[in-house]
């Protein structure tokens, strides 16, 4: 377990969420009083965390060619009787995991010599695995998929937060790699107030069924808790699987 900072945010600006719309846009009132429209880098429903009136943090790009200068990075929730920052930017989990892999922060993966990203795999080679780790003790390649996780039931982190045909497909494809390879599903718990993990059976029972089937076949599940603050992101360790 490590609490050292893996990723550091650029300078962030505080504000309050007014509304999110058309998935990619969020109107935010900054502390200065200015109302801005920020890019929302999260295509999902953001179930349970997209609450109007909540404190948020945004970054600002210096690129004059961008249509929207601001990017929505964080939102603060109070699900467990304590203010908790939740990561909004779904482009970051893979970046953070890559940095964590380079530091060997996940002991259960063992040793590996090479980290490759976005490697084609599957029967038709049309899918891409987030990370392929090779050169390990057992000579079995490790196929590792990352899923951003922000929905909770109390202190239980839950994935998915909506029906996901894509997520179901990933589980099926990871199962086909067993036992010749190691298949790993890493759930990136993008908030620090959870200590358990479970599949979102209420919104996608098929996903839960496939996940349990995959685990029986040998899929490894890493529900990784990440502490998120306006300064940066650190790794807290593994949540307990409760399914």
Structure, described:
- The mean pLDDT is 95.
- The protein is globular.
- It is built from three helices and 17 strands.
- It has 243 residues and is mostly beta strands.
- α2 runs parallel beside α3.
- Low-pLDDT stretches are none
- What portion of the residues fall into strands of 2 or more residues? 35-45%
Assembly level: single chain
Our Rg estimate from Cα atoms comes to: 18 Å
Q: Quick one: overall form?
A: globular
Largest sheet: 7 strands, mixed
- Separate helix tally: 3
The total strand number stands at: 17
Distance between the termini: 23 Å
Widest sheet: strand order?
A: 1-16-15-13-10-9-8
- In helices, the fraction of residues equals 10-25%
Structural class: mainly beta
In round numbers, the mean pLDDT is 95
Order of helices and strands: EEEEEEEHEEEEEHEEHEEE
Write the layout of secondary structure elements.
Layout: E1 5-8, E2 12-21, E3 25-30, E4 35-39, E5 55-60, E6 70-77, E7 84-87, H1 92-102, E8 114-121, E9 127-134, E10 142-149, E11 151-153, E12 156-159, H2 165-176, E13 182-189, E14 196-199, H3 205-217, E15 220-228, E16 232-238, E17 240-241
Parallel strand pairs: 10-13, 12-14, 13-15, 14-17
Antiparallel strand pairs: 1-16, 2-3, 2-5, 3-4, 5-6, 6-7, 8-9, 9-10, 11-12, 15-16
Helix pairs in contact: 2-3
């Amino acid at each position: 377990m490590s609490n050292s900072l893996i990723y550091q945010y650029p300078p962030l600006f505080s504000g309050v969420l007014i509304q999110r719309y058309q998935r990619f846009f969020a109107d935010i009132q900054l502390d200065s009083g200015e109302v801005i429209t920020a890019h929302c880098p999260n295509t999902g429903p953001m179930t349970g965390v997209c609450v109007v009136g909540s404190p948020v943090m945004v970054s600002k790009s210096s690129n004059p060619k961008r249509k929207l200068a601001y990017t929505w990075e964080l939102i603060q929730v109070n699900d467990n009787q304590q203010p908790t920052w939740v990561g909004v930017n779904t482009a970051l989990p893979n970046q953070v995991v890559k940095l964590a892999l380079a530091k060997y922060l996940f002991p259960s993966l063992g040793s590996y010599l090479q980290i490759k990203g976005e490697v084609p795999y599957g029967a038709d080679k049309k899918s891409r695995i987030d990370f392929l780790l090779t050169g390990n003790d057992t000579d079995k390649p490790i196929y590792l998929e990352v899923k951003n996780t922000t929905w909770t039931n109390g202190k239980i982190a839950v994935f998915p937060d909506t029906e996901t045909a894509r997520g179901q497909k990933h589980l099926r494809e990871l199962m086909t790699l067993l036992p010749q390879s190691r298949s790993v599903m890493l759930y990136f718990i993008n908030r620090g107030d959870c200590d358990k993990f479970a599949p979102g059976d209420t919104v996608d029972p098929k996903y839960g069924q496939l996940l349990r089937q995959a685990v029986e076949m040998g899929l490894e599940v890493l529900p990784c808790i990440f502490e998120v603050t306006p300064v940066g992101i650190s790794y807290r360790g593994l949540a307990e699987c409760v399914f």
